[in-house]
Amino acid sequence: MNSPLTEADGLWIRRFHPRPDARVRLVCLPHAGGSASFYFPVSRSMPEDVDVLCVQYPGRQDRRGEPLVDSLPALADKVHQALLPWADRPLALFGHSMGASLAYEVARRLERDQEIVPAALIASGRRAPSRHRVETVHLRDDDGLVAEMRALSGTNPQLLGDEEILRMILPAVRADYRAAETYTWEPGPPLRCPVTCLVGDDDPKVTVAEAAAWSEHTEGPFALKVFPGGHFFLAEHQPEIIRLITARLEAPVRP
C-alpha cells in the first residue's frame, strides 16, 4: 500500500527499505547537520514488521537548494504535517541530539492536534526539554563550527577536510545548531506515550541526570539506558541499540 503523500510532503520522508505491510512505523529524526541517510543502517536492520521513515531536513543532499529552517518549533510543525499521511498505523519516534528535541515536539503535536499517541518516543543523546543550557555554537565562525563537529566525532573526518564539501554543508549545520540552541521548552501537558532515553556516560552535551529528567515529560512508562561513550555513542553500540528499539516496538502499540 502506498501512502497518499503529496509531492511536497514526499521531500521530507526517505524509505530506504519499504515495508508496506508493517504493523508500526519508526520515524527517525537526525541530529544537527545530519541527514536521513544517517539512519540507513537502522532501516536495514529493523524487522519486517517495522516500516522505517527517515526524515530529511531542508538544505542538505537532494534538498540543498531549499530554504533552511532554523527554528525547532517551525521544523516540528513541518515534520508533523509531513507525517500525517503515514499515521494510518502506529508511529514511533526516534531522535538523536537535536532530533530528540524535535521528536518530542512532534509527539506533542500529534497528541494535541490529532489525539495520536505515539507507540514510543526514544530520545538519544539529548537532555530533557525542561533542562536548559546556554549554548552559542551557532554564533561561532566557520572554523569554530568545524571544531565543534570534530570534537563530537559525528562527522566523517574526510568531509571535514574537504573545503568544497564544507562550504556546502556548513549553512545547514549552522541553521540546525541555531534551531537546537535557541529552542526553549514551553510547559504543557506531559506526553502520554512511553519514553525511553539513551545517553552516553561521557557525553559533553548531556549529563545522565539531565537525561533522566525526560521522565518528567510523560505520564507513560519511562526507561533510561546509559552507554559507555560520548555524544555519538550510538555508532559504537549500534547492534545493542537496534535490539533495544526492536524490543520497545514489540510491546503492544496503540492504533
Automatic annotation (TrEMBL):
Belongs to the thioesterase family. Residues 27-249 form the Thioesterase TesA-like domain. InterPro entries: AB_hydrolase_fold, TEII, TesA-like, Thioesterase. Pfam families: Thioesterase. GO terms for biological process: lipid biosynthetic process. It comes from Streptomyces murinus. Keywords: Hydrolase. This is Surfactin synthase thioesterase subunit. GO terms for molecular function: hydrolase activity.
